[in-house]
Amino acid sequence: MASDSPTDQPQPLPEVDLKTFIAQMPKAELHVHLEGCLTPVLARSLASRNNLPPPSSLSHLEPSHPEAGYAFNDLTSFLQIYYPNLAVLVTAEDFSDLALSYLRTAHAQNVKHVELFFDPQAHTSRGIPFPTVVRGYRHGVITAQRTLGISASLIMCFLRDHSAEYAMSTLMESLPFKDSIIGVGLDSDERDNPPSKFASVFQRAAREGYLLTMHCDIDQPNILTHIGQAINEIQVDRIDHGTNIIESPELVDTIKTRGIGLTCCPISNSVVTADFKGREIVSLLRQGVKVTINSDDPAYFRGYVNENLLKLAEGTDVTKKELIQLQRNAFMISWISSWRRSHFLHMLDEYEQKALSLVEERRPLANGI
Ligand code: ADE
Ligand code: ZN
């Protein structure tokens, strides 16, 4: 029998530390807010280009220390600086530059595909026309695709602390841009703003062909009711965060049966709650739920996808094989064609074979020999 030629088998990689293992893994990111990618450096530069003062959230920062971050300590104080900072985004070029700056970083982290949230109402409410926002973001996405080879889609989120009528009118405004937007989501302050408030908006969005996701944020009041509504009333395709589902074995069974995935964000969890929820994320993974790891608002929480994976890996007993499974989940629940899904899953299989074959070979035998 002919032996395999060297090109038939993936060549093993040298065994590497966890950080390198994560960095080299092909990845998808499904939960990142474009507005949350506005770094202090970019905010300052856009303000200057638009002849605006720098946002007041930057006043405590030294311009000569661009690595310094925004100051906040929970979801409320985060949102209180998040929205005012957006005043520096004025022209389509600004939105394009914001998308491109995130996609460059994601590409440098070996992210192959991204599904990007954006909040049109955070801009239309301050007088920026809807088409300016979408055309700008779309330009950034297309430029990144062409120049870097990273693929990206846009998900339009409604602000849940505004009215359902405003969400519906935003949905109507989006219809001429349907080709550029793959799905709709729901974000911002969840307290007293349950999924059911937006049932008719999501029903119409589904009829228009949009895929559906929504935030069920960590440890919110009535969170299991919200998760139940998202699954049963709204019939979402995915849930953003949603980690509290672990408290309901019945809901866990339902999402497993329906293949609904969760987009989890360990670093943001650790800032907005007392815990990064690593134990819950790994337990859900081991129960067969399609959990994924993402960055949420990387410019604010100060971690992109690699740092989020590292936080999980260092804070739990998750294995390298399971870290690969988390990425497999991301490609499985991503909104891409089945052809591209197979392509990325094959890439991950190859990575697993190359990166883990040495680890397997070197594992000591159970009897110590
Ligand atoms: N909008 C941007 N980031 C968010 C988060 N972590 N929770 C709710 N709304 C958001
Ligand atoms: Zn989010």
UniProtKB/TrEMBL annotation:
All residue ranges annotated as the Adenosine deaminase domain in the record = 26-350
Q: Does the keyword Disulfide bond apply?
A: no
Database matches in InterPro entries? A_deaminase_dom, ADE, Ado/ade_deaminase, Metal_Hydrolase
Q: Which reactions is this enzyme annotated as catalysing?
A: adenine + H2O + H(+) = hypoxanthine + NH4(+)
Example of a GO MF term: adenine deaminase activity
State which Enzyme Commission number(s) the record gives.
Answer: 3.5.4.2
Query: Under which main EC class is this enzyme filed?
Result: hydrolase
Its predominant location is cytoplasm
One record GO biological process: nucleotide metabolic process
Question: From the record, what ranges are coiled-coil?
Answer: none
Q: Does the keyword Zinc apply?
A: yes
Localization per Swiss-Prot or TrEMBL: Cytoplasm; Nucleus
Q: Where is this site: Important for catalytic activity?
A: 241
Q: Which residues bind substrate?
A: 297
Pfam families named in the record: A_deaminase (PF00962)
The record's Gene Ontology cellular component field reads: cytosol; nucleus
Manner of cofactor binding, per the entry note: Binds 1 zinc ion per subunit.
Q: Which UniProt keywords apply?
A: Cytoplasm, Hydrolase, Metal-binding, Nucleotide metabolism, Nucleus, Zinc
Q: Which domain of life is it from?
A: Eukaryota
- Cofactor dependency: Zn(2+)
**Residues where Zn(2+) binds:** 31, 33, 215, 296
- What family name appears in the similarity comment? Belongs to the metallo-dependent hydrolases superfamily. Adenosine and AMP deaminases family. Adenine deaminase type 2 subfamily.
The UniProt function text for this chain reads: Catalyzes the hydrolytic deamination of adenine to hypoxanthine. Plays an important role in the purine salvage pathway and in nitrogen catabolism.
Protein name from the UniProt record? Adenine deaminase
Biological source species: Cladophialophora psammophila CBS 110553
